[in-house]
Amino acid sequence: MKHFQQTIEWMKAKSEASEKIKYTYVEKQDIYVQLNKIPFTSYFFGYIPRVNCNLLDFDYLNTYLKKLNCVGYQVDPANYKSESKFPNKFRLTKAVALKYNVIINLQLKDEELLGMFKPKHRYNIKVSQRSNLDFRISNSEEDYEKFYELYLKNAIRRKYPPRSKKYLDSVYKNFEDKVYIANVYFNNELLVSWFLILYEETVYFVYGGSNDLHKEKMSSYFLLWNIIRYFQGIGIKYIDLMGIKDPKTTQDGFTRFKLGWSNGRYIEYQDSFDVVLSRFYYIFKFFYYIKNFIFP
Which of 10, 26, 75, 196 has the largest CB neighbor count within 10 A? Predict the structure, then answer.
Protein backbone atom coordinates (compact mmCIF):
# COMPACT_ATOMS: atom_id res chain seq x y z
CA MET A 1 0.00 0.00 0.00
CA LYS A 2 1.67 3.22 -1.18
CA HIS A 3 1.79 6.29 1.06
CA PHE A 4 0.31 9.53 -0.32
CA GLN A 5 3.75 11.15 -0.04
CA GLN A 6 4.92 8.68 -2.70
CA THR A 7 2.64 10.14 -5.38
CA ILE A 8 3.04 12.50 -8.32
CA GLU A 9 0.50 14.83 -6.66
CA TRP A 10 2.67 15.26 -3.57
CA MET A 11 5.86 15.78 -5.54
CA LYS A 12 4.21 18.37 -7.79
CA ALA A 13 2.82 20.17 -4.75
CA LYS A 14 6.26 20.37 -3.14
CA SER A 15 8.09 21.47 -6.30
CA GLU A 16 5.50 24.06 -7.31
CA ALA A 17 5.65 25.61 -3.84
CA SER A 18 9.46 26.02 -3.88
CA GLU A 19 11.97 26.68 -6.62
CA LYS A 20 14.57 24.82 -4.54
CA ILE A 21 12.73 21.49 -4.86
CA LYS A 22 12.58 19.19 -7.86
CA TYR A 23 11.68 15.52 -8.09
CA THR A 24 12.32 12.42 -10.13
CA TYR A 25 10.37 9.22 -10.70
CA VAL A 26 12.50 6.09 -10.57
CA GLU A 27 10.39 3.85 -12.78
CA LYS A 28 12.23 0.61 -12.08
CA GLN A 29 11.70 1.10 -8.34
CA ASP A 30 8.25 2.73 -8.67
CA ILE A 31 9.24 5.48 -6.24
CA TYR A 32 9.50 9.25 -6.22
CA VAL A 33 12.58 11.03 -4.92
CA GLN A 34 12.45 14.65 -3.81
CA LEU A 35 15.55 16.54 -4.98
CA ASN A 36 16.57 19.45 -2.76
CA LYS A 37 18.93 21.94 -4.41
CA ILE A 38 22.07 22.65 -2.42
CA PRO A 39 22.59 26.45 -2.52
CA PHE A 40 25.41 27.89 -4.64
CA THR A 41 26.17 24.49 -6.22
CA SER A 42 24.90 22.27 -9.02
CA TYR A 43 24.28 19.44 -6.53
CA PHE A 44 21.17 17.99 -4.90
CA PHE A 45 20.36 16.10 -1.72
CA GLY A 46 17.61 13.54 -2.16
CA TYR A 47 14.75 12.62 0.15
CA ILE A 48 12.60 9.48 -0.17
CA PRO A 49 9.52 9.65 2.06
CA ARG A 50 7.68 6.65 3.50
CA VAL A 51 8.87 3.85 1.24
CA ASN A 52 9.05 0.08 1.74
CA CYS A 53 12.81 -0.34 1.98
CA ASN A 54 12.62 -4.11 1.49
CA LEU A 55 11.71 -3.45 -2.15
CA LEU A 56 14.55 -1.04 -2.91
CA ASP A 57 17.51 -1.95 -5.08
CA PHE A 58 20.07 0.36 -3.51
CA ASP A 59 22.79 -0.34 -6.07
CA TYR A 60 20.48 0.69 -8.92
CA LEU A 61 19.12 3.67 -6.96
CA ASN A 62 22.58 4.93 -6.10
CA THR A 63 23.72 4.80 -9.73
CA TYR A 64 20.52 6.52 -10.87
CA LEU A 65 20.78 9.38 -8.36
CA LYS A 66 24.51 9.94 -8.92
CA LYS A 67 23.68 10.74 -12.55
CA LEU A 68 21.36 13.49 -11.25
CA ASN A 69 24.17 15.10 -9.23
CA CYS A 70 22.94 13.83 -5.87
CA VAL A 71 25.57 13.83 -3.12
CA GLY A 72 23.39 11.54 -1.03
CA TYR A 73 19.82 10.94 0.02
CA GLN A 74 17.70 10.34 3.12
CA VAL A 75 15.10 7.59 3.47
CA ASP A 76 12.16 7.66 5.89
CA PRO A 77 11.04 4.00 5.94
CA ALA A 78 7.41 2.91 5.87
CA ASN A 79 8.59 -0.34 7.49
CA TYR A 80 7.74 -0.95 11.13
CA LYS A 81 10.43 -1.33 13.79
CA SER A 82 9.25 -4.90 14.41
CA GLU A 83 10.30 -5.92 10.88
CA SER A 84 13.80 -7.04 9.99
CA LYS A 85 16.37 -4.26 10.14
CA PHE A 86 18.41 -2.96 7.22
CA PRO A 87 22.17 -3.37 6.89
CA ASN A 88 24.14 -1.14 9.26
CA LYS A 89 26.16 0.32 6.36
CA PHE A 90 23.65 3.21 6.30
CA ARG A 91 24.12 6.35 8.40
CA LEU A 92 21.23 6.83 10.84
CA THR A 93 19.74 10.32 10.79
CA LYS A 94 16.89 12.32 12.27
CA ALA A 95 13.60 11.56 10.52
CA VAL A 96 11.82 14.23 8.51
CA ALA A 97 8.46 12.61 9.29
CA LEU A 98 7.61 11.71 12.89
CA LYS A 99 8.91 8.26 13.81
CA TYR A 100 5.84 7.21 15.82
CA ASN A 101 2.27 7.07 14.62
CA VAL A 102 -1.32 6.07 15.33
CA ILE A 103 -3.47 4.43 12.66
CA ILE A 104 -7.17 3.77 13.27
CA ASN A 105 -8.59 0.60 11.72
CA LEU A 106 -12.01 1.48 10.27
CA GLN A 107 -12.75 -2.16 9.40
CA LEU A 108 -13.55 -2.97 13.03
CA LYS A 109 -17.15 -3.29 14.12
CA ASP A 110 -18.52 -0.49 16.28
CA GLU A 111 -18.06 -2.31 19.59
CA GLU A 112 -14.49 -3.28 18.74
CA LEU A 113 -13.68 0.20 17.50
CA LEU A 114 -15.06 1.92 20.60
CA GLY A 115 -13.18 -0.61 22.71
CA MET A 116 -9.94 0.64 21.12
CA PHE A 117 -10.52 4.14 22.56
CA LYS A 118 -9.46 5.15 26.04
CA PRO A 119 -12.42 5.50 28.45
CA LYS A 120 -11.82 9.26 28.70
CA HIS A 121 -12.10 9.54 24.91
CA ARG A 122 -15.38 7.59 24.87
CA TYR A 123 -16.71 9.91 27.58
CA ASN A 124 -15.62 13.04 25.69
CA ILE A 125 -17.30 11.78 22.51
CA LYS A 126 -20.57 11.45 24.45
CA VAL A 127 -20.14 14.97 25.87
CA SER A 128 -19.54 16.36 22.37
CA GLN A 129 -22.64 14.63 21.01
CA ARG A 130 -24.77 16.51 23.56
CA SER A 131 -23.18 19.88 22.78
CA ASN A 132 -25.19 21.00 19.71
CA LEU A 133 -22.17 20.83 17.43
CA ASP A 134 -22.41 20.67 13.65
CA PHE A 135 -20.06 18.51 11.55
CA ARG A 136 -19.51 19.38 7.89
CA ILE A 137 -17.15 17.88 5.32
CA SER A 138 -16.40 18.95 1.75
CA ASN A 139 -13.56 19.83 -0.59
CA SER A 140 -14.93 23.23 -1.57
CA GLU A 141 -12.62 26.19 -1.98
CA GLU A 142 -14.73 28.16 0.49
CA ASP A 143 -14.17 25.57 3.22
CA TYR A 144 -10.48 25.36 2.35
CA GLU A 145 -10.12 29.13 2.85
CA LYS A 146 -11.91 28.87 6.21
CA PHE A 147 -9.55 26.07 7.18
CA TYR A 148 -6.47 28.11 6.29
CA GLU A 149 -7.65 31.12 8.27
CA LEU A 150 -8.16 29.00 11.39
CA TYR A 151 -4.91 27.06 10.77
CA LEU A 152 -2.94 30.31 10.59
CA LYS A 153 -4.53 31.74 13.75
CA ASN A 154 -3.81 28.48 15.55
CA ALA A 155 -0.14 28.55 14.50
CA ILE A 156 0.28 32.15 15.68
CA ARG A 157 -1.42 31.38 19.00
CA ARG A 158 0.68 28.27 19.62
CA LYS A 159 3.87 29.92 18.32
CA TYR A 160 4.92 27.44 15.65
CA PRO A 161 5.83 28.31 12.03
CA PRO A 162 2.87 27.61 9.72
CA ARG A 163 3.08 26.36 6.17
CA SER A 164 2.79 29.21 3.70
CA LYS A 165 -0.43 29.89 1.82
CA LYS A 166 1.44 29.18 -1.42
CA TYR A 167 2.47 25.77 -0.12
CA LEU A 168 -0.98 24.74 1.07
CA ASP A 169 -2.61 26.12 -2.09
CA SER A 170 -0.29 23.86 -4.06
CA VAL A 171 -1.22 20.78 -2.02
CA TYR A 172 -4.94 21.61 -2.29
CA LYS A 173 -4.74 22.17 -6.05
CA ASN A 174 -2.70 19.07 -6.87
CA PHE A 175 -4.75 16.62 -4.84
CA GLU A 176 -8.05 18.15 -6.02
CA ASP A 177 -10.92 15.75 -5.19
CA LYS A 178 -8.70 13.73 -2.84
CA VAL A 179 -8.75 16.64 -0.36
CA TYR A 180 -11.42 16.77 2.34
CA ILE A 181 -11.92 19.69 4.70
CA ALA A 182 -13.64 18.52 7.90
CA ASN A 183 -15.12 21.25 10.09
CA VAL A 184 -17.01 21.49 13.36
CA TYR A 185 -19.22 24.50 14.10
CA PHE A 186 -21.11 25.78 17.08
CA ASN A 187 -23.78 28.36 16.27
CA ASN A 188 -22.11 28.76 12.83
CA GLU A 189 -18.77 29.59 14.46
CA LEU A 190 -15.89 27.40 13.26
CA LEU A 191 -14.22 25.67 16.22
CA VAL A 192 -11.91 23.13 14.60
CA SER A 193 -10.90 22.28 11.04
CA TRP A 194 -8.78 19.48 9.54
CA PHE A 195 -7.20 19.16 6.10
CA LEU A 196 -7.41 15.49 5.04
CA ILE A 197 -6.05 13.64 2.02
CA LEU A 198 -7.68 10.43 0.84
CA TYR A 199 -5.37 8.08 -1.04
CA GLU A 200 -6.29 4.51 -1.91
CA GLU A 201 -7.59 2.83 1.27
CA THR A 202 -6.37 5.44 3.77
CA VAL A 203 -7.35 8.95 4.79
CA TYR A 204 -4.48 11.03 6.18
CA PHE A 205 -4.76 13.86 8.70
CA VAL A 206 -2.28 16.32 7.19
CA TYR A 207 -2.95 19.72 8.80
CA GLY A 208 -5.30 21.09 11.41
CA GLY A 209 -6.41 24.22 13.19
CA SER A 210 -8.61 25.10 16.15
CA ASN A 211 -9.44 27.96 18.44
CA ASP A 212 -9.72 28.24 22.23
CA LEU A 213 -13.48 28.80 22.28
CA HIS A 214 -15.97 26.42 23.88
CA LYS A 215 -13.40 23.86 24.99
CA GLU A 216 -16.02 22.26 27.22
CA LYS A 217 -17.84 21.04 24.10
CA MET A 218 -14.99 18.69 23.11
CA SER A 219 -15.15 19.74 19.46
CA SER A 220 -11.97 17.87 18.42
CA TYR A 221 -13.44 14.59 19.69
CA PHE A 222 -16.67 15.31 17.83
CA LEU A 223 -14.65 16.04 14.69
CA LEU A 224 -12.58 12.86 14.63
CA TRP A 225 -15.50 10.64 15.64
CA ASN A 226 -17.53 12.01 12.74
CA ILE A 227 -14.57 11.66 10.37
CA ILE A 228 -14.39 8.00 11.40
CA ARG A 229 -18.10 7.50 10.74
CA TYR A 230 -18.00 9.33 7.42
CA PHE A 231 -15.12 7.37 5.95
CA GLN A 232 -16.42 4.08 7.32
CA GLY A 233 -19.57 4.84 5.35
CA ILE A 234 -17.70 5.07 2.04
CA GLY A 235 -15.59 1.96 2.62
CA ILE A 236 -12.24 3.45 3.62
CA LYS A 237 -10.11 1.10 5.73
CA TYR A 238 -7.75 3.32 7.76
CA ILE A 239 -7.22 6.78 9.23
CA ASP A 240 -3.54 7.72 9.51
CA LEU A 241 -3.05 10.44 12.15
CA MET A 242 0.36 11.31 10.65
CA GLY A 243 2.62 11.10 13.60
CA ILE A 244 3.12 11.60 17.32
CA LYS A 245 6.15 12.46 19.42
CA ASP A 246 7.97 9.67 21.23
CA PRO A 247 5.30 8.46 23.69
CA LYS A 248 7.97 7.01 25.98
CA THR A 249 9.41 10.47 26.66
CA THR A 250 6.77 13.01 25.60
CA GLN A 251 3.12 13.33 26.51
CA ASP A 252 2.14 16.67 24.99
CA GLY A 253 -1.56 17.35 24.43
CA PHE A 254 -1.68 16.34 20.78
CA THR A 255 0.22 13.10 21.40
CA ARG A 256 -2.17 12.20 24.24
CA PHE A 257 -5.16 13.06 22.04
CA LYS A 258 -4.01 10.78 19.20
CA LEU A 259 -2.97 7.93 21.51
CA GLY A 260 -6.41 7.95 23.09
CA TRP A 261 -7.97 6.63 19.87
CA SER A 262 -5.84 3.48 20.08
CA ASN A 263 -5.84 3.01 23.88
CA GLY A 264 -2.17 3.94 23.98
CA ARG A 265 -1.02 1.61 21.20
CA TYR A 266 1.21 3.09 18.52
CA ILE A 267 3.42 2.25 15.55
CA GLU A 268 7.17 2.81 15.56
CA TYR A 269 8.83 3.06 12.17
CA GLN A 270 12.35 1.89 11.46
CA ASP A 271 15.13 4.43 11.86
CA SER A 272 15.65 6.93 9.07
CA PHE A 273 19.01 6.81 7.35
CA ASP A 274 21.24 8.58 4.85
CA VAL A 275 22.97 6.98 1.89
CA VAL A 276 26.25 8.70 0.96
CA LEU A 277 26.97 9.06 -2.76
CA SER A 278 29.80 11.61 -2.80
CA ARG A 279 32.42 13.18 -0.53
CA PHE A 280 30.46 16.44 -0.98
CA TYR A 281 27.80 14.86 1.24
CA TYR A 282 29.98 15.54 4.30
CA ILE A 283 30.46 19.19 3.34
CA PHE A 284 26.71 19.55 2.79
CA LYS A 285 25.93 17.98 6.18
CA PHE A 286 28.49 20.18 7.95
CA PHE A 287 26.90 23.39 6.66
CA TYR A 288 23.41 21.95 7.23
CA TYR A 289 24.17 21.37 10.92
CA ILE A 290 25.80 24.78 11.28
CA LYS A 291 22.73 26.42 9.75
CA ASN A 292 20.36 24.57 12.06
CA PHE A 293 22.53 25.32 15.09
CA ILE A 294 22.53 29.06 14.41
CA PHE A 295 18.95 29.22 13.08
CA PRO A 296 17.13 26.32 14.81
Answer: 75
